[in-house]
Amino acid sequence: MRHLLTLFDLETVEIEAVLREAARLKADCLAGNREPLFPRFVQALLFEKPSLRTRVSFETAMVHLGGTTLYLGADVGWGKRETPADFSRVLSQYADVIVCRAKSHSTVEELAKYSTAPVINGLTDLSHPCQALADILTIQETFGDIKGRKLTFVGDGNNVSRSLALICAKLGMKFTLAAPASYELDEPWLNRIAEVCPGFEVEMTNDPVAAVKDAAAVYTDVWASMGQEAEEEKRRKDFAPFQVNFKLMESAPKDAIFLHCLPAKRGEEVTDEVMDSPQSAIVAQAGNRMHAQKGLLAWLLARRNEG
Ligand code: CP
Ligand code: NVA
User: Which of 4, 131, 132, 304 has the fewest CB atoms within 10 Å, i.e. the most exposed one?
Assistant: First the structure.
């Protein structure tokens, strides 16, 4: 039985297997076949923060696979009515897989510690692994072979950019973060990546123009993540020179794609012009959340009786 809390939980060959399964199931789905690989399986979604993409893409993926979903909000009394250990042991008696979106990463760790069903991180303050899987699927669909290509993230060293840096390292892609000083990726995370991927080419810069020059994909995310609302005003000032606009995209290769995990704050981290440009792959990227997670569910559920 395996969990996906961060992409450190998957070896490179395992990420590649999940992506292959995702691509296979996507092709089947587009051909009109929704193979019910897991009939009557039950997926629990335990969400502490709002969501459109993650919630709906997991729900639809599970319907396609033949199972069903329980969306659990605050009313289940999570963390309030009983200990996390009791909660997790009981929930995993009913659910075959648990997807959790939590304010604090330690919450998903605690859930996984006691769960007898696989736990998938549907976003925490630390990481957003399912997003990174869908993003790589999108880059693969655009360019075919991704090895040696560069993903440039213009913005905050947050949950999304951390997960992207790690998946790039695992899959042999280069990763550059263009961020204002003090918003870069944290040392402990980079050190952990360096331990498992010694040859990783990562660059940190305060110059977005130089950063996008040889990028295959230019990526951004909101400047203030959920939970950072109090810092919004300061961040708006600090990140102002890091907006992804038409001028910045002119410095990127003509065939570079633009990616955003969404939801976007149009007019802040990215302009309408870029969001709606022919280079923008944001809609396919969001659609790929469902396909990538289907691949992940199939991979994890096939291993539910292991170890
Ligand atoms: N990208 C993403 O996770 O979107 P939601 O917050 O809508 O799930
Ligand atoms: N960094 C953003 C991603 C939302 C999908 C957040 O955590 O709010």
Answer: 304
